[in-house]
Amino acid sequence: MSTPTPAPGAVGAPRPRIEGPLKVTGTARYAADVPVPDLAHGWLVTASVSRGRIRDIDATTALALPGVLGVLDHRNAPRLNPAAGNYFGPDGSLQLLQDDVVPYAGRPVALVVAETSEQARAAAAALRLSYHVEPHDLDFRLEHPAARPGSTAFGPEADTGDLDAELAASTVVVEERYRTPEESHTALEPHAATVWWHEGDLYAVDSNQGAFSVSEVLAALWSMDRERVHVRSEHVGGGFGGKGACGPQVILGSMASARYGRPVRIVLTRAQVFEATASRPPTDQLVRIGADADGRLRAIHHRPAYALSPLAEYIEWCTEQAKILYAAPAIRTQLTAVPLDILPPASMRGPGATPGSFALESAVDEVAERLGLDPLELRLRNQPTVGPVSGLPFSSRRLVSCLREGARRFGWAARDRRPRSRREGPLLVGTGLATTSFSAGVFPSTASITAEADGTFTVAVGASDIGTGARTALTAVAADALGVGPEQVRIRIGDSDLGMAWGAGGSRGTTSWSFAIVEAAGKLREKLDGPDRPVTATADTTALIDYRPQRERQTFSAVFAEVTVDPATGEVRVRRLLGMFAVGRVINPLLARGQLVGGMIMGLSMALHEESVRDPRTGRQANADLAGYHIASHADVPEIEADFVPDYEPQDPSGFNGLGEIGTAGTAAAIANAVWHATGTRQRTLPIRLDRVL
Ligand code: MOS
C-alpha cells in the first residue's frame, strides 16, 4: 500500500452522528446498561440538613430487609486518601463517608447495597438518621462578611487606567446590580456507574465527561497507580459540566465493590442529581460603566460575587468578558467568592461567561438607553483593536461580522429603539441583542492511529462524546489528516486505557483531541512507506503546546432575540432567536449548529425559567425535580437559527476553536434586553419570572 492520496473534505461536511443508529435502536450501552455478572446495587442516602454532624445512623431495620448486603457509612467505609483533589488542590467534596460532618444538604452520608435496586431503595428508606444540627449560612450576597477575592488561577484581575477619574469624566454612568440564581445541569442521563475490582485493578463504566481524569482522581483516592484504574464512558447522556468531576456514583461504587467483593451499580435519582452532584453557583454582580455623550466607553468596572463551598476552591469566572469585549481607558475586575454551606459548585455550560455576560451586556444596553443610542451602534463604536487589558493582538476577532450579518438577517435596521413601541393586540413586542466572547485553546492529549492490514485506520483517543457528536467530528479530522475518506476510519474513545486526554469541557475537547490526532496522523504517514501492517503511530501534545500568552484566542457571538410580553399575565415568550458565531473553522456544520441551537435554548432557559430554590430554614432545594425546576425545550422558541461567519483560528494547527459553550453564554442578556424593549422595564434578576415582569 502506498501513502494515502490526500482526499480532503471530510472537515466541513454536514455528516450526522455515526453512533446515531446505535442510540435510536437502544444498542448503545450507557453506564447503567452494561451487563455485568453477579451485580449488586447501591442506593445513595443523602443528608437532609445543611450543616452539622451525624448523631446516629440506625441500620437495624434496614439490614434485616430482604436482599440487603450492607450499609456503608463513615463508621465502616474504606478510608480514602485525603490529598486527592482537582486542579486547585485537595477537594473535600470527594471525601465521601470519611467523617461525621455534614457540610451541605444533599451530601451522601450512607450507601445501602442490596441484590436489587428496589431492595436497596427500600432499605435506604428504612435507615434512621439523626443529626446534631448546626446553624447554616445560605445568605448569598456581594456584601457577605465572609466574602473574599476569588482565585486568580485562571488569570489576573484587570486594573487599567484611572477608573474613578474616567467615571467622573463620563456623561453617563450606569451602576447596577445583576443577579443570577443557583442552577442545575440536569443532564438527561442521571449520574450512574457500574464498578468492580479484579485482581487489584479497579474497573468502572461511568457517566462522565472525561474518563482519563476520572481514572486519575480514583487512583489518587485509592493511592494506586493510575494504570490500574480502568474507566470507560462510551456513551454519555449529557453533562453540561455536571459530569466533569469524579462523581459520587463512581467513588461510592468503588468503595462498596471493595467492601462486598461484588460489582456494584449506582444510579442517582433525579433529586440526587440536583442535590448531590454539582450546581452553577448564584451570582450577585455590580457593574459600573461610564460613557461619553458620543457613546465612547470610558470605564468598565465589573465586580461579581459567586457562592462556593469551603470544601473546594472554585472559580465562576464572570469577569473575562469585561476584559475582552470593549475598548475603554479604564477597566477593573474584582471577582469575589462567598463561602456558604451549599453544594460545591462546578462549571455549568459557559461557566462564568454565562452569568457574567448577562450582567455586562445588560449594563451596556442600559448605557445605550441612557444615551439614546442604538445598542448595536454603541457596540460597534467600542470595538477594541487589541486585547483591552492584555494589549495582545487578537488571533481572530470576527465579532463585527457577527453583529453586522446578524443584524442584516434579523432585520435590526427596521427597529424603533424606543421601548413599548411595538404592540400586537394585547401583547408587547420587543427585540434585543447581546454579544459575548469565550476563551478558546487546547490542553494536552494523546492519540494513536493504526494503519490496519485491510487499508482501514483505527484512531484511539481518550475523548468523550457527551452527546455533542465528538466521535463524528474527530473521525472527519482524522480522515483529512490521513488523506482518506471518513468511511475508512474507525474511532475508539471514552476509555482511560487509551491514554492521557483532556475531557469534554472548557470548550477545549475537540481542539485538544484533534491536535493529538493530527500529530499522530503525521507520524503515521511517515511510517507508511514500508510494507508492514498493522503499523501504529502515537502522539502526545504535552510538549507542543505553548502557554505563553501571545495572542487573545477567543470565540465570539452576537445573539438577537424577539420576545412578546403579555402585560396581563407577565408571560414572556421568545418568538425568534438568531445567533451568529465566529468559532474558527467549523468541522461539521450540522453538529455545530445543533450544539449552538441547544446552547441558545439553554440560555433561554436561564433567562426565563431555571432557578434552584432553597428553603432558607433547612437549606434544602425545594424544587429538586423537573416538575419544579423548569427547563425550556425546542417548543419554547418557534424560530431559532445559529450560523457561522467565515473564520479560521491561526493558532490551531487545523484552524479550529471550541464551540461547546458560547451558544449558552450570550443568550440571556439578548432576551433580557428584548424584554426591556417590549416593556420599558429592566430585568436585572434572572429568571425573568411572571412576578418580576408584572
Ligand atoms: Mo463545560 S461547563 O466545561 O462542560
Automatic annotation (TrEMBL):
<dbReference type="InterPro" id="IPR016208">
    <property type="entry name" value="Ald_Oxase/xanthine_DH-like"/>
</dbReference>
<dbReference type="InterPro" id="IPR046867">
    <property type="entry name" value="AldOxase/xan_DH_MoCoBD2"/>
</dbReference>
<dbReference type="Pfam" id="PF02738">
    <property type="entry name" value="MoCoBD_1"/>
</dbReference>
<dbReference type="InterPro" id="IPR000674">
    <property type="entry name" value="Ald_Oxase/Xan_DH_a/b"/>
</dbReference>
<dbReference type="Pfam" id="PF20256">
    <property type="entry name" value="MoCoBD_2"/>
</dbReference>
<feature type="domain" description="Aldehyde oxidase/xanthine dehydrogenase a/b hammerhead">
    <location>
        <begin position="25"/>
        <end position="135"/>
    </location>
</feature>
<keyword id="KW-0500">Molybdenum</keyword>
<protein>
    <submittedName>
        <fullName>Xanthine dehydrogenase family protein molybdopterin-binding subunit</fullName>
    </submittedName>
</protein>
<dbReference type="InterPro" id="IPR008274">
    <property type="entry name" value="AldOxase/xan_DH_MoCoBD1"/>
</dbReference>
<dbReference type="InterPro" id="IPR037165">
    <property type="entry name" value="AldOxase/xan_DH_Mopterin-bd_sf"/>
</dbReference>
<keyword id="KW-0560">Oxidoreductase</keyword>
<dbReference type="InterPro" id="IPR036856">
    <property type="entry name" value="Ald_Oxase/Xan_DH_a/b_sf"/>
</dbReference>
<dbReference type="Pfam" id="PF01315">
    <property type="entry name" value="Ald_Xan_dh_C"/>
</dbReference>
